[in-house]
Amino acid sequence: MADTSVKSLVSAHTTERWRLEQLHVVDHHRLYWTTRGQGRALLDGRRCGFGAHNAIFVPAGAVFAIELGPHVQGFETRIPNDGRVQLPTGCHLVRFKDGMEHSEFTSMFDAMRRETQNQRPFMTEALAAHANLLSIALKRAIANETAQSRLPAKERLAKAFCALLALQFTSGQPMAWYAAELGITPTHLTRVCRQSAGITAAEMLSQMVQHRTRSLLIESDMPIKRIADAMGFGSAAYFTRFCQQHFGAAPSKLRKQAHGL
Length: 261
What we know:
Blueprint: E1 5-8, H1 9-14, H2 18-21, E2 29-36, E3 39-43, E4 46-50, E5 54-58, E6 64-68, E7 73-79, E8 92-95, H3 99-118, H4 123-144, H5 153-168, H6 175-182, H7 186-197, H8 201-219, H9 224-230, H10 236-247, H11 251-258
Antiparallel strand pairs: 1-7, 2-5, 2-7, 3-4, 3-6, 5-8
Helix pairs in contact: 3-4, 5-7
């Protein structure tokens, strides 16, 4: 399991944008803290805007995507899902309003970044301790927020779809299967997701498959046929057509391009 890490949102913004902007799921927790700029996030099937002094928490296994505006500044922290840090449950967008809270939260990220830069003894333990302090500050901010009314029905349904999507998006199941599991029609699922997330259920599923497929092709040495099987594609021809449609290249060519071949 990797250790806790922190980096600036500027560096996250300059990497391949699809890594953040397409819906995906990760096996570690993420905490974003913005000190300047604006952006949009898609959390649990709900699209929302964020600005300066906002914290976005995404637990391991949640479906999410984040679009960073051109002037955004802040931090991204990745925390291992190993139980060392007691974090909130569920996705959260928290808008900090108190200036003192802004400073305290930012100083915790600064301390973590100094640890990683200086590589001092016991760095792993120190990062875990700082992450626990961040978690406490975050949970306090969540508790201090005005109690929110129950989510509208469309957002509850979109959230349930995302939970199912996180578990099944590599299965190759059609959209009708997801709708049946949720007890609704495909048309209703499409409408609800468009209203809550801004994109259809089919587009959400496609983004998830695209993100994982491209990651496996360019970051692993897994044989292409195994990737196709793992992503639920019924045939090599269908997998090739999918890659050409969404990435502009066949799987083998995309892998070669990523390695400069």
